[in-house]
Design a protein that fits this description.
Order of helices and strands: EHHEHHHH
Strand order of the largest sheet: 1-2
Largest sheet: 2 strands, parallel
Structural class: mainly alpha
Number of strands: 2
Length: 103
Amino acid sequence: MLNTDQGSQFTSDAFIDVLKSNGIQISMDGKGRWVDNVMVERLWRSVKYEEVYLKAYSSVTDAKKQLSAYFEFYNLKRPHSSLDKMTPNEFYYDQLPQQNKVA
């Protein structure tokens, strides 16, 4: 399942056809309902202001490489105030039952 807002890129016939042809269920937030997906909206704000707007990528390959590095930083090294200054990775593994942590 892919959940998006109702932006034109997500409601285009071409995009919807790709999802359908790959068996991906479509879910869209209500029009003007950014609060429905507030955590993802906050993620994309961080991506834009901490990475994309600060860079001039030389190619699509360069953009993919640098965005991959940013997401690694975001999940493994960047503390989040909403997670009591833990990284998303630390927070996730902290929530696992004890027997899963030992593996």
